[in-house]
Design goal:
Helix content: 25-40%
Number of helices: 6
Radius of gyration: 17 Å
Shape: globular
Largest sheet: 5 strands, mixed
Structural class: alpha+beta
Distance between the termini: 40 Å
Order of helices and strands: HHHHEHEEEHE
Mean pLDDT: 88
């Protein structure tokens, strides 16, 4: 299948910001500024993560995403993992790690407008905690079209669905994205791609 770009009146940056929110000022930067001043923004992945997590939108909490789409997906992930967590861990051969999954263990961070967005192609990520310090991370890239290549775990393709006038389609969109994150969670759990809190 070829590269198909659909036009919904949104730019890529607008789609990312609409779905996932943006990092707070003053750390939010334009791509052109970043590209023209790349030497100033050279940093390790760890530095990028610290910058993103310290500059979430004002009033936003990792357990309560500011952007409506991200929040709804976050809630759907928590519901799935709360209901199916024990089975997921048992199938992965990790039942000894299962201590239950609650809503506050599913955290979301937007990276839109940050060096992580431009350097790593990551617009946001979920951290799903197994306990106080161990978590599985699923990275996201939001777009208005199917990209031939992307660096994040999951590509979210927004096709111009209006949450108010197309509520059934919107609910399906939320559900499919949450299920995809859970699939990544299962895969990483099976592969033992468990990280420790920074």
């Amino acid at each position: 299948m070829g590269f198909v770009k659909r036009d919904y009146g949104y730019t890529g940056n607008q789609i990312e910001a609409e779905l996932l929110g943006e990092v707070a000022e003053p750390k939010r930067i334009s791509f052109e500024y970043w590209k023209n001043n790349y030497d100033k923004f050279r940093m390790s992945k760890g530095e990028m993560y610290r910058l993103v997590e310290a500059n979430q939108p004002e009033g936003s909490e990792p357990t309560d995403a500011e952007a409506d789409f991200a929040y709804q997906v976050q809630c759907a992930i928590a519901e799935i993992l709360t209901a199916q967590g024990q089975e997921i861990f048992e199938r992965a051969g990790k039942k000894d790690l299962f201590k239950g999954i609650s809503y506050d263990q599913v955290k979301f961070y937007t990276a839109v407008g940050s060096p992580m967005d431009y350097a790593l192609g990551v617009d946001g990520y979920f951290k799903i905690y197994l306990d106080d310090i161990s978590y599985i991370e699923v990275t996201l890239d939001a777009s208005g079209w199917q990209k031939p290549e992307y660096k994040a775990d999951q590509l979210i393709i927004y096709e111009g669905i209006d949450s108010k006038t197309e509520s059934a389609k919107w609910k399906d969109f939320i559900s499919s994205e949450a299920l995809a994150v859970v699939q990544w969670f299962k895969y990483k759990l099976e592969k033992n791609e468990i990280k420790r809190a920074r």
